[in-house]
Amino acid sequence: MAGDDLPAAIVLGSGFERMPETVDKIARHFRLAGNGGAAIRRIKDPQLLADDCAELGIPHPQLRWDQPPDPENWVVKTAGGAGGGHVRRAAGESPTAGRYFQRFVAGRSISALFVGNGQTAHLVGFSQQWTSPAPTAPYRYGGAVRLRRFDRRQAAVIGGWVSSLTRRAGLVGLCSADLIRGPDGYTFIEINPRPGATLDIFDDVDAPLIEAHLRAATGQVFRLPRFVDSMASMVTYAATPITHFPSIAWPEWTADQQSAGTRLIAGDPVCTVFARGPSAQSTKRLIKGQASQLQLQWEGDRT
Hints:
Elements: H1 20-29, H2 37-44, H3 46-56, E1 63-64, E2 74-78, E3 88-89, E4 99-103, E5 108-117, E6 121-131, E7 141-146, H4 152-169, E8 172-182, E9 185-192, H5 199-202, H6 209-217, E10 230-237, E11 254-255, E12 269-277, H7 280-299
Antiparallel strand pairs: 1-4, 2-3, 2-4, 5-6, 5-8, 6-7, 7-10, 8-9, 10-12, 11-12
Helix pairs in contact: 1-2
């Protein structure tokens, strides 16, 4: 994106969390709008994050690198991983380089989208996420719905947590924090230091989030959108191998569509579906219905 006061820049998406040295190389040759290697190393190092949370009084799951005695109560993750595909239940898993064990926290997955300016995190909004389990990826990302309402006192608490961590790591631009809402309150899980999967459901034509991202990355003042309804996005996956993907008249509420003739294996993404509604609950029902109807075009009726 370029403009009178917004120079063209590189905006990095998912996948670079495990390659901070590559981020450093990119930044040496191009203008980087977002977090550099140092910030990514700090916020995506599971041990440093756990230590920071302990020091700052932020509820965070127990971490260990060796095999726990009660693996049924733990998950195993890849340091710097993203998207949920790398997460497994720890039962039957052995310690491996780059993998760590985190105590399982039961509850609902909540994400807080925010814009950092290196010192403070400015909350954009909250969303509820759900998984689309696969045999080899039980925590694979499924979708998210923007929450129209959120408790103001709890939002202030979470905002304080992410601001403290933003200050520690020097985070800039769009980021998201993953949390679990359980019976005893919220537990902070991790921060994704880049624009994430929920970007589209929070975007607004009057206050574009990419503009806020670019401005925050260069220390400029930015605007945040306001919402009066709910919106959801959902990734659809191929349930079985598809030798020749059919030609489909894609509805306007889809994006990232597979091309006709493509060969897919089970688990490959097919498209992203969007829906808007008056509440999070009704919007989630609507998008799942839309996705089910759309999937009939490449899967057929399997009932």
